[in-house]
Amino acid sequence: MRIILITGISGSGKSVCLNALEDAGYFCVDNLPPTLLRALVDTRMQEGAANLAVAVDARSADSLAGLPADIKRLKDEGHDVKVLFLTAKTESLINRFSETRRSHPLSHRLRADQNPADRPTLSECILREREMLGSIEKLGHVIDTSGLSANKLRAWVKELVESEKAPLTLLFESFAFKFGVPLDADLVFDVRVLPNPYYDLALRPFSGRDEPVIAFLQAQPEATDLYADIRKFVEKWLPAFKNDNRSYLTVAIGCTGGQHRSVYMVEQLARHFQQTERVVLRHRELA
């Protein structure tokens, strides 16, 4: 059975992911206590189901400790188990809770002797949840949803879970340093040292996927050298990441605005590695 386990920080988009998977034909269960995961899998197997998506989070904090062992057993039994851990920057989470006017799930976990007026603040709840889920974060692929629209998140999830079965999926992501480094990055490269097409008024409206910007950067010896260095680094260490049983490796390329240089570099690297690897592209700042 193909099992997608969705977990992560409250407000980071788990419901959006579940909806996307349900649209893709998965049987979805939200807020399942981890102790019931094995029983659910057995039941769905008996019913002849092929795809299952389950969301687990801090609402089941008391039974999270056994989740890593359960995942290992399911994999040992031959199930295709993928874990997606959703997270976001604290300021993004606070904005989302403010917009929806929902309270954080941990704000209701009061001790019997605790005064309701002493409930933890939203920031305290988020910090506590990060601590509770720290060990779970290492089990799968991390997706940073800071600043992402629901539509873009749905597209990313669909792209990941519908990828071909391969030892490792290589993700190249462009981003703008002024908006922060992606939380899900495994390797980060800074291409701000390259000449910036933004300062050419004729090139400014284009992105690194458009021919005028491509021609401009390909004419720069620094761009050619930096591309070669990044490519060689990834080629050298990719086998080690595969041997570490990684399902995903995210290579983030950053420039100032995330429109020209980083987009160009991601496109060039993806084109090269697509010849031999399963590759996914993300351009975080492009509309």
UniProtKB/TrEMBL annotation:
Keywords: ATP-binding, GTP-binding, Nucleotide-binding. It comes from the Bacteria. Residues 1-162 form the RapZ-like N-terminal domain. GO terms for molecular function: ATP binding; GTP binding. ATP binds at residues 8-15. InterPro entries: P-loop_NTPase, RapZ-like, RapZ-like_N, RapZ_C. Residues 169-286 form the RapZ C-terminal domain. SUPFAM superfamilies: P-loop containing nucleoside triphosphate hydrolases. It holds the Pfam family PapZ_C. GTP binds at residues 57-60. HAMAP family: RapZ_like. This is RNase adapter RapZ. It comes from Noviherbaspirillum sedimenti.
